[in-house]
TrEMBL record, chains A, B:
Domain HTH crp-type span(s) in chain numbering: 145-219
Signal sequence extent: none
Pfam family, one: cNMP_binding
Name this protein carries in UniProt: Crp/Fnr family transcriptional regulator
Entry GO terms, CC: cytosol
Molecular function, one GO term: DNA binding
SMART domains (alphabetical): HTH_CRP
PROSITE patterns documented for this protein: HTH_CRP_2 (PS51063)
Keywords, ordered alphabetically: DNA-binding, Transcription, Transcription regulation
Keyword Transcription regulation: yes
InterPro entries assigned: cNMP-bd_dom, cNMP-bd_dom_sf, Env_Response_Regulators, HTH_CRP, RmlC-like_jellyroll, WH-like_DNA-bd_sf, WH_DNA-bd_sf
Amino acid sequence: MITRLFLQTHRKPILSDEDAAALEAACARTQEFAAKRIIVREQMPLTQCTLLLNGFIERFKDTAEGRRQILAIHVPGDFVDLHSYPLKRLEHSVAALTPVTIATFPHPEIRALTERSAALTELLWRSTLVDAAINREWIVSVGARSAAARLAHLFCEMFMRLERIGMTRELEFDFPVTQIDLADATGLTAVHANRMLRQLREQGLVEFRQGLVKILNWDALRDFAGFDPGYLFSIDRSVLAVRLPVTVQGRTQTGAGAGPCGTIGSFTATSRACAIGALRQVRAEHGRD
Amino acid sequence: MITRLFLQTHRKPILSDEDAAALEAACARTQEFAAKRIIVREQMPLTQCTLLLNGFIERFKDTAEGRRQILAIHVPGDFVDLHSYPLKRLEHSVAALTPVTIATFPHPEIRALTERSAALTELLWRSTLVDAAINREWIVSVGARSAAARLAHLFCEMFMRLERIGMTRELEFDFPVTQIDLADATGLTAVHANRMLRQLREQGLVEFRQGLVKILNWDALRDFAGFDPGYLFSIDRSVLAVRLPVTVQGRTQTGAGAGPCGTIGSFTATSRACAIGALRQVRAEHGRD
DNA sequence: CGTTTCATTGATCAGCGTCAATCGCTGTGG
DNA sequence: CCACAGCGATTGACGCTGATCAATGAAACG
């Protein structure tokens, strides 16, 4: 079943059996690519979407200065370029990080799906938005986290996403990328990424060696990275909350209650100092830092 | 007409008059907020979406260390949190940068729209994906551009987005944000942002003074920022190409042609050196750098 | 087996953050 | 009308994080 992992990752909204079957049937064919092969080149007109079945895929842009910025790393079950359906072209390239197997869904087939079922459309739409939420978390990573925390955060994210599809073993998982890839994803140089990986290892947080990630201390790693899985929009946030007590939640307590639906806020976004103070307090209460 | 600027920004797919009217009618009410007011707080369950009619809005996250990362800046005509419809909650907060007027669209109304028209759904979907493309360009900014180039790039982006909705005058436009906001958007400190703004001014590229941006030399600014408007998915790329000759286009020429539909690439993503060399060459041909 | 890629480490240095002080503007209350 | 507080802009001094340059070894590959 081609769409199994996709549906396992994105469970809402719940599809009828017919819709699920229609989605499955929309696949035109499967295909394999060697590692490092470019699958989609930026700005080319596209007529199909790519569902990743096996292996790892990167989306990236190269800058004029010769730096590569990886924008996303995809795992099996991810609809790598579903956004090409409404957009018709991509503003970035897509390449295989490892040997991969993909399934392709022609745009006309997807159009037929959207005309057939609003629920199915919403599921597809939603999956592209979870992707976007991950994009935004990466903005936070490169914009506001230290080098070591960026790497730690990436490991946390990959762990949760791979666990969702059964690709972890206890606290370790295969992550067959190079240190150069890690550097390109986190906005660092390979040299510095290497040093930070050593630091993470020596701090007893996480170990990365030849494509294998071993999480040595999940709680410490999560705190160090400032990782809050909320942005992954996984199925059951309450379960995650138990397993991963959310540090940063305290933020929303800065000030009294908001309107009933949360859209009518009643507080300003100012007073950084105040918010920071509150945060430090929350962190202190949890005995961290 | 509430949706005028939105439809002006997002012209594809083209809507029927009925669909456009239905969209217009889905608005429940308009509302005003003072500057710095939080409009949507992260993680709160949402039941409506926000269309910005007037003013500027930011989407942001605060980190545990007290840093604020701005994830997006919205201009009139932007559906600020349309992604809350499929996602039901947001992983970030939304606040007014200036006094704003917004229109709210209840989720049930949007659901009705999606059940009514696949074309309308695609337009809405597409607009959330253009947003995501901007998110990704911001990853490139904070991850791979120098401090000054990040600011320059932001000014280029805002200029193009504001021009689309008629909010520029020749080469200047109102951008009523503080230097702190600019710093939070670009992953810099306010102090350093200030210095870089001075540098950009002294280099004769762009001037930012009390909420007014004056572009002193568009070509030089665009080149300095490495700005390629393709990621904005504006209406007519060819027009933009004439007006703003696309430097970075040359990249896709690195290697011979790809498959007919662009999905079957035939080159590897390796050999950075080669690609960089080719880029330098392209840039040299254009007499830059 | 040569060639290339990746990992690793050292030395050096620059870009950007941090700390601190000043100045101007605005709003506010006495 | 003035004193004062708060915020934003600006500038200087200093230091750290992370980039750059360089070299080596090991492993993968054709």
